[in-house]
Amino acid sequence: MLRSKKPAIDFIKLLKDNKFKNTPSRLAILEIFAKFDKPVSADFIYKKLKGHINEATVFRTLLSFEKSGILRKVDLRKDSVCFELNSDHHHHMVCVKCGFIEDFKGSKDIEKLLEQIIEKSTKFKKITEHSLELFGFCKMCN
Amino acid sequence: MLRSKKPAIDFIKLLKDNKFKNTPSRLAILEIFAKFDKPVSADFIYKKLKGHINEATVFRTLLSFEKSGILRKVDLRKDSVCFELNSDHHHHMVCVKCGFIEDFKGSKDIEKLLEQIIEKSTKFKKITEHSLELFGFCKMCN
DNA sequence: AGGTAGTTGCAAGTGATTTGCATTTATGAT
DNA sequence: ATCATAAATGCAAATCACTTGCAACTACCT
């Protein structure tokens, strides 16, 4: 049967490339990111892996993954910080009622916009990152 | 002497319009927002008003002001959450080295962009808010 | 297999924010 | 003006998300 299958990420290689030891904890965390493919919080991960991992390890792992660029922090106005895999820069629409999240890309348009902004600025020289998050109502909740 | 003076905000009216009682604490907090005209944290406010206000009151006030729309939450990747007066929607450029913040507006372009995004979305119906924050290096630090 | 740096679990520690409760105060009605 | 009442405040304790110190463990290189 032909199935559209997302190319699996080679986490073992990813860890090695980033000079991390390959441990069960790290693989488990990465697999959660791959499986859910949405911004997830430390708390969410901890609950999924309850009994198999210590909470401190979750925080430490997320932090080191962020530092090395494997993960990216996302602020969606939740109580706790969320992360997502850092491949493929994109943004989010968040339903303020039900919490549903849709990803979207807008790289070309947004980058054009950033260029205009930086041109107008007298104080800034270079923009290295940006975040754009939209909040509103999904079709179900509207 | 003629001075270019920013039109003072009538905080007493602002409080009344939002069904808040007019108290010294609230006026003091609003005046800090007006005076510094930058995103400020609860901690910053508390330190400015040390001895004159309780920390819990600061948090409670910020929260209720946010709920009523007087303030808006801003995530600038600092340790603690920042707020700013919610008049006059704008965005920020933050220097990741020295922390310097520059405001900018981009309403027209950004709104055009938002329209395009929402048109393409099959899941979302309405965008009520958005945040766009840029991170990079100011001219001093670059 | 063995040495070692890097990882983990556990428990205690932080720092920001919240909450419960008793006291005080602003405000609208008398 | 005074009063009654709901709202606001201060204080202390609690909570919540996250961090850290340290001893035990493990992946990985030789």
Quick rundown:
The structure is a homodimer of 142-residue chains. Chain A is an alpha+beta fold and 142 residues long.
Describe this structure in words.
Chain A is of the alpha+beta class and 142 residues long. Chain A is 39% helix and 24% strand. Chain A has five helices and six strands. Chain A has a three-stranded antiparallel beta sheet with strand order 1-3-2. A three-stranded mixed beta sheet of chain A has the order 5-4-6, with no helix packed on it. In chain A, a hairpin with a 7-residue loop joins β2 and β3 (82-85). The first copy, chain A, is globular. The termini of chain A are far apart. The model of chain A has no long low-confidence stretch (mean pLDDT 89). β6 (124-138) of chain A pairs antiparallel with β6 of chain B, so a sheet runs across the interface. Chain A binds a DNA duplex (30 and 30 nucleotides) through residues 20-23, 25-26, 42-43, 53-57, 59-61, 63, 79-81.
